Amino acid sequence: LEESLRKKKISRNNGTTIHPSDNTNLQEIGQETTVPPATVVDSNNIEDANKQVQTQKENSTSNIINPNNNDEECSDEIKGIIIVNVMGRLANDMFEAAFTRRMASELGCGWHVIYRTMWSPAFLTARTDVCLPNALARDNSRHHPDQTKRAILKIGTMDVNPKIDLYRALTYNSLEPKDGWNNTDDRANKVTSGWVESLGEKAFTINHMEYPLQDDSVDRLVSKLTDPSSPVQVLNLRAFFIHHDWMADWMDPISDWLHIDPSCCVTPPPSDNAIVIHVRDFSPDEGDKNNHLEVGVYRDIIHRYSNNNNNVTGDREIIVVCQPKSTKSELVQALVEEFGAEVRTGTDSIDAMCFLSRTRGMLILSTSSSFSEMGALLAEQNGGDVEVHYPTHTLDKPACTMKVPSWKYHLVEQSRVIDFDVDHERLKVVQS
After folding, report:
1. What is residue 376's three-state secondary structure?
2. Which long-range contacts (CB under 8 A, 24 or more apart) does 218-226 make?
3. Which distant-in-sequence residues (6+ apart) come within 8 Å of 268 by Cβ?
């Protein structure tokens, strides 16, 4: 790879949107489809959104590949395959996409990327193709199916009858089911897992919670895979990759790869000094994720950091970002009553992510929410001096939490902050 890439300094460019050639409908991803501030759209609105996406596709050349996706101009040589098992909703998928792009960039030409859905995904749809045009690696199964078939044949097939089932399993997309494979995630996953296992030492799998994601560990993995003596020809990714260490030196290219097309950012951005609070409700049995915090925690943080001694917020706009189902929740309603906050849900999860990423003032995250954390990372990259706050009830491995030196971590009880701005080195995090 070029030395400039190894130093993780990749220049930004505007690029051209990828447009898939097949006709697919808008899928409900991540958050329910809504219009600001908190009104669920009806079926006519969804149809209009579908038409808008289809118009964007038809108004451009369907086979154009985004120049920003061209890590290198590659020949048809096949050295290996990266299998991306897309898991979780929008933000999880964005972390997975970013890690895949890094691996594809470092491994270089000849490593073909196969994207497949495994569990509750937001990718891969016509809308994510349009709204996140740089998220997929250039040489990928979604846009180069013939290359995928050649790659599978070179790596090795197994006793599958008919053999096309292996290709269909490896490229299975539950969001765009075809040829009778609707609701067959288990079947596709079993075929895929069986094939990977049959490859023996030719395959290397990164499972959730099982592989260290520090930057030096990822560098060693790249060295292993690019060693001419390595037998590995398949890198099987089955993790979320929510860890700051591997991202820290790559945030410039990551912000390019995860750039959201402006046409998908419908809700007007917050003012430059706005205080934005993200509220992500979790299921009642997920007690590790701080879903019972009360308004006092937010009052303490805002009062301490708003720089208005006698007035908690001064004239600063306060906005709560949440899912449509949460607009009437006890916490959201308390924030509205306490601060006169406005509520924004976004037109869909991509629009809501765009809104968070354009925060310039204060951003208070929802603990253990990958959506919060991805929005904050992109906000820091998008310019301005956003101040990120992370309330947590524990410093001992809170779920789905990154250790980011620039963020302010606050140790909290249910209704108050008990320790402000804790040294991030005290925070212990787990692999994801």
Report:
1. helix
2. 218/102, 218/246, 222/103, 222/106, 222/107, 225/80, 225/107, 226/106, 226/107, 226/108
3. none
**H/E segment holding residue 179:** none
Q: What is the rounded CA–CA span in Å between residue 134 and residue 130?
A: 9
Decide: 94 and 246 in contact? Cβ < 8 Å.
no
Could you tell me the pTM of the whole model? 0.82
Question: Which strands form 203-207's sheet, in the order they lie side by side?
Answer: 111-119, 80-87, 234-238, 203-207
Q: Provide block-wise average pLDDT over 10 residues at a time, the chain (432 residues).
A: 37 31 28 31 38 42 35 70 96 97 94 94 94 96 92 76 73 81 74 92 91 82 94 96 94 97 97 95 56 89 78 79 94 96 97 97 94 97 90 90 95 95 92 70
| Gyration radius of the chain over CA positions | 22
Closest among 275, 347, 344 to 311, alpha carbons compared: 275
Helix (H, G, I), strand (E, B), or coil: what is residue 75? coil
